[in-house]
Design a protein that fits this description.
about 290 residues, mainly alpha, 2 domains, three-stranded antiparallel sheet, 13 helices
Length: about 290
C-alpha cells in the first residue's frame, strides 16, 4: 500500500508538471474544440476517459505494480515528438505527444499490467485530437464528391432536374455547392466517436465493438447523402432559401438523429446475428 501511495503521489506530481509543460498545447487544443465544429466532441473525451479509468479501479487494485524502465524511453520519445512539433509548427505532433507521454508515465510508474487495464481509456484520447490538414483534406474531398453523386442520384430518382459538375449541383432555380462543411466529415467523426463509445457500453466482445464502430462510416455517408438530396429537393420546391440558414442547420441535426437511429438498428441486427455465447453453468454458479 505504501508503494501505491508513493506511486500515486509521483503520478500527481508528474501530471502537474506535464500540465505546466503542455499548457500552450492544451490551450490551442481547447481552442480547436471551440472553433472547429468537426471536433466539438473533444470536450467530452477527457471526462469520458477519466470515467472509464475510474470504472477500472477494481482491476487496477488487483493488478501488480511493476514499474518498467521502458516507460521512460516512451516519455522521452514523446517529448522529442513535442519538440519536433514545436520547432516545425506542427500542431498534430505536439498534441499526439500528450497521449504518448501518458502511456509512458503509466508504464514507468506502474508497469505493463496497469497499462493493459488503462489501454482503452488512453486510446480514447486520440479522438480528441484533430487530424492533420493533409489527411483531413484527403478524406473530405472524396466525401464531397460522393455526397454530390448520391444527391444527384436521389434527386434524379425523385424527378428533380439536376446537373452535377464536380461537387456543384445545378438546379433549375439555384446551384448547390457541396462544400467541405457539407462533405459529411463532421457527422462521420462525431458518429464514429459515438459508435466507439456506444459499442463499448453495449457489448463486451471486441469483434462486436469493432463492427459497431465501423458501421458508423457507411451510416454517416448515407445520412449525409440524404441531407444533400433533401436540401436539393427542398430548394427546388420552396426556393433557394430552403437550402440555407436555419433550415440547412436544422437538417444537419435531424439527419444526425436519423444516423444515430440507424446505428441502433444496426447494433440490434449485429447482436441478433451474432448473439453472445451462453454462460457456462459453472460460471453462473460461481457468480451466484
Amino acid at each position: 500500500m505504501t508503494m501505491t501511495r508513493r506511486s500515486m503521489a509521483a503520478a500527481a506530481l508528474v501530471g502537474a508538471s506535464l500540465l505546466l509543460l503542455y499548457r500552450d498545447v492544451l490551450w490551442k487544443l481547447v481552442d480547436a474544440w471551440i472553433n472547429d465544429g468537426n471536433y466539438s466532441h473533444g470536450f467530452l473525451i477527457v471526462p469520458l476517459a477519466v470515467y472509464l479509468a475510474w470504472e477500472r479501479r477494481a482491476r487496477l487494485q488487483a493488478a501488480t505494480a511493476d514499474p518498467s524502465g521502458f516507460g521512460l524511453v516512451v516519455v522521452l520519445g514523446s517529448l522529442a515528438v513535442l519538440v519536433a512539433g514545436v520547432l516545425g509548427a506542427e500542431l498534430f505532433l505536439t498534441r499526439i505527444s500528450i497521449v504518448g507521454v501518458t502511456v509512458g508515465i503509466v508504464l514507468f510508474l506502474f508497469g505493463w499490467q496497469y497499462l493493459r487495464v488503462l489501454a482503452f481509456p488512453i486510446a480514447l484520447l486520440l479522438l480528441m485530437i484533430p487530424l492533420p490538414a493533409i489527411i483531413f483534406n484527403q478524406i473530405a474531398f472524396p466525401l464531397q464528391l460522393l455526397a454530390s453523386r448520391f444527391g444527384e442520384s436521389v434527386m434524379t430518382a425523385a424527378n428533380v432536374p439536376v446537373l452535377r459538375e464536380g461537387n456543384v449541383l445545378i438546379l433549375a432555380n439555384t446551384s448547390l455547392e457541396v462544400a467541405e462543411a457539407c462533405s459529411g466529415i463532421r457527422s462521420l467523426i462525431s458518429l464514429l466517436t459515438l459508435g466507439i463509445v456506444f459499442g463499448y457500453f453495449t457489448d463486451k466482445r471486441p469483434s462486436i465493438r469493432t463492427l459497431i464502430a465501423l458501421s458508423t462510416i457507411p451510416i454517416a455517408i448515407l445520412a449525409n447523402g440524404l441531407r444533400v438530396a433533401g436540401t436539393g429537393i427542398a430548394a427546388q420546391q420552396f426556393g433557394p432559401a430552403a437550402a440555407e440558414g436555419f433550415f440547412h442547420e436544422f437538417s444537419g441535426w435531424l439527419l444526425f438523429l436519423v444516423a444515430f437511429a440507424l446505428l441502433l438498428v444496426v447494433q440490434r441486427l449485429i447482436i441478433r446475428l451474432m448473439p453472445a455465447p451462453p454462460i457456462p453453468a459453472s460460471a453462473e454458479a460461481a457468480a451466484a
